[in-house]
């Protein structure tokens, strides 16, 4: 029997690709959007989507939007990888209070099942020479100063409270996601900046990377077969930032000389660039908080998702190539 499925954060990178994937089925797909939402990403499929006005930060709007829904994919979130910098209120409002509102509305409207899209930053940082974290790892981001990670961790606390109240909800934790459709240049910022030779140096850490299509497939499988209250890391290759930059350089055909930069030196250099008003000559990713995070090893194991969700894997170079070709086709580079 066809189901009514709603996606929050439908205009975001993962959310928009998720909507497209869900449309391939026989279910009715609803997208939660705000009055100010840009629907340009859906210009070619707008007639197939049921748009519902609502905002995760406004609890009352969710109760009407969730009415009669069978499944909810909660992918709405605010991603900000810098320091607090006046963003604390927004991060908490959307990521924590927004998740609390979604969970309560799902309980109130007796939604059959919910998948909460979290982040690997809610899991932790690798220790012991980059040994990958898994779903049971203890959260240890508190010493980094990345407020985004704290709010994603708190969002999972809200999910667990709802599960204790009887909500059937599964958590997924995507890694660093590349792919076509990254309109706001999240992970794609690395592709753009290497292509334009704005990455003269690289941090000494590493990161887990994955393609967006693999992520959305796994999210849908989590809805179908994921275990209630469980979390699933959705990742792929664990690579150093040097290795990642080399892959991007090879895919884009851009020859670039990059120097390794320890975090202690990066702080001094960033301050110097600010004083000299030359900060815009290098990547926007070069901020103290982001560089601090990138100096660690965010390596993760996705064995649980592969085993229980049947998540597929592929070399990240394929994803970067697809993203690069999409950026060129869309005239975004």
CATH superfamily of the domain at 4-175 and 210-235: NAD(P)-binding Rossmann-like Domain
Describe the largest sheet.
7 strands, parallel
The coarse overall form would be: globular
State the name of the first-level CATH class of the domain at 4-175 and 210-235: Alpha Beta
Return the string of H and E elements. Answer: EHEEHEHEHEEHEEHEEHEHHEHH
Question: Which fold does the CATH topology of the domain at 4-175 and 210-235 refer to?
Answer: Rossmann fold
The number of distinct helices, counting runs of at least 4 residues, comes to 11
Uncertain stretches: none
Rounded Rg: 20 Å
Helix content: 25-40%
Gross CATH architecture of the domain at 4-175 and 210-235: 3-Layer(aba) Sandwich
What's the arrangement of strands in the largest beta sheet?
3-2-1-4-5-6-10
